[in-house]
What we know:
Blueprint: H1 3-31, E1 35-39, H2 50-58, E2 63-66, H3 73-86, E3 91-96, H4 99-106, E4 112-118, H5 129-132, E5 152-153, H6 157-164, H7 170-178, E6 183-184, H8 185-189, E7 202-207, H9 215-224, E8 228-232, H10 238-241, H11 243-254
Parallel strand pairs: 1-2, 1-3, 3-4, 4-7, 7-8
Antiparallel strand pairs: 5-6
Helix pairs in contact: 2-11, 3-4, 6-7
Amino acid sequence: MSMLKIAKLFTAAFGAAVIATGAANAATATTAKPGIVLVHGGFVDGSGWEGVYKILTKDGYDVTIVQNPTISLADDVAVTKRAIAAQKGPVVLVGHSYGGVVVTEAGNDEKVASLVYIAAFAPDKGESVDSLIKNPPPGAPVPPILPPVDGFLMLDKTKFAASFAADVKGETAAFMANSQVPWGVAALAGAVSEPAWKSKPSWYLVAKDDKMIPPPAQRNMSKRASSVVTEVPGSHAVYVSNPKAVAALIKQAANKVSVAATK
């Protein structure tokens, strides 16, 4: 066989391999899953997401758990945006409690495709945790927040389980109470500049037995944001006590994200 024929055969085989590789890559791009970024709320850290994390990673999602200092909203948004930037593609941004304020602001990042609120605050422009809890309805449970010390808040440890984690195993609830992260008063006052839910689709999980953020308030915020709503029995720590329900809602949001369309 002449060198010319060998060269032609090699070129044909190489070209076919390139085409096959390109087709495989295109298929992967079409079926790839979005990244998930989980944002915790006040008084706790990211470790509470462990159950949700295990379910999502087992299902093939790339999950990042943010560890916010909860000192100021601006700082928490900056930390969250770094986590978003580290993801390779589009992101489903998930927030619990005060984390909902963080994702409402950080969710304006162009990589964020959708938002998920888990028993969370979903503020409008100019709103903060402070303004949202300022005038609780008559009969609403009062969270056992202690007076601020050096600009930081804590929950009464003896009342933590009943108010925050009533459906969490006693040992776990006690650990959560004793490992509280002081929540900066400045973070509660941090106001949203432009709510991402006005331009991004959102999902909301209402915890029907929540004694930190009253369920009626959760329903009002989710309705205002035009969120897809799921309601489940559960305390404020529903992401700890019922990770399956939380992960299911997150996957619902993720299934609506088209990775290929965003590239």
